């Protein structure tokens, strides 16, 4: 005949099973959290990849607008190109893509790529001209801004 477990033994067994269940729940929560984080990272990766592919088109549209003859500034065609650029900017904004600040900002190699240095008398490297805009998605730089830098006092 088997002996019936005592109340104390049953309480100990319930305590052990409760602890095991709590550990399993914590593990499940951690797995879910990691999966959500991975999903967000993967979405950002693909967003950045698509934006990289579109940047050349946006750059070309902006260049075309910069070189449009002044007498055509109010022409419907030029206004249409402006509209397309605005649509890209809006889409980028909705994706969380931000343009990197440049002119007047202290040079930061995390965001800027200096392609030339102008003479200056100051002690701080400051962006004086943007040659190509840079973009970032959250903390990730999609493309560094290509800039000219000048030494200035701040």
So what's the CATH class of the largest domain? Alpha Beta
The portion of residues assigned to helices is: 40-55%
Structural class: alpha+beta
Q: Could you say what the CATH architecture of the largest domain is?
A: Alpha-Beta Complex
Percent strand: 15-25%
Architecture overview:
- The chain is of the alpha+beta class.
- It folds into two domains: 1-95, Hemagglutinin Ectodomain, Chain B; 98-154, Head domain of nucleotide exchange factor GrpE (Nucleotide Exchange Factor Grpe, Chain A, domain 2).
- Helix content is 52%, strand content 22%.
- The protein has helices at 7-66, 76-95, and strands at 97-99, 112-118, 124-132, 135-137, 140-143, 145-152.
- A hairpin with a 2-residue loop joins strand 4 and strand 5 (140-143).
- Helix 1 packs antiparallel against helix 2.
- The longest helix has 60 residues, at 7-66.
- The termini are far apart.
- The model has no long low-confidence stretch (mean pLDDT 93).
Write a brief caption for the model.
The chain is an alpha+beta fold and 154 residues long.
Please supply descriptive tags for the structure shown above:
2 domains, three-stranded antiparallel β-sheet, alpha+beta, Nucleotide Exchange Factor Grpe, Chain A, domain 2, Hemagglutinin Ectodomain, Chain B, 2 helices, three-stranded mixed β-sheet
Please render the helix and strand layout as text.
Layout: H1 7-66, H2 76-95, E1 97-99, E2 112-118, E3 124-132, E4 135-137, E5 140-143, E6 145-152
Parallel strand pairs: 2-6
Antiparallel strand pairs: 1-4, 3-6, 4-5
Helix pairs in contact: 1-2
């Amino acid at each position: 005949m088997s002996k019936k477990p005592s109340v104390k033994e049953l309480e100990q067994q319930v305590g052990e099973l409760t602890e095991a269940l709590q550990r399993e729940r914590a593990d499940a929560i951690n797995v879910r959290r990691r999966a959500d984080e991975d999903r967000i990272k993967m979405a950002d990766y693909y967003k950045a990849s698509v934006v990289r592919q579109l940047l050349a088109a946006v750059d070309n549209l902006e260049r075309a607008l910069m070189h449009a003859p002044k007498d055509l500034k109010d022409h419907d065609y030029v206004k249409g190109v402006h509209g397309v650029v605005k649509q890209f900017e809006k889409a980028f904004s909705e994706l969380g893509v931000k343009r990197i600040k440049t002119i007047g900002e202290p040079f930061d190699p995390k965001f800027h790529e200096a392609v030339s240095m102008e003479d200056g008398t100051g002690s701080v490297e400051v962006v004086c001209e943007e040659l190509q805009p840079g973009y970032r998605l959250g903390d990730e730089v999609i493309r560094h801004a290509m800039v000219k830098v000048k030494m200035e006092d701040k």
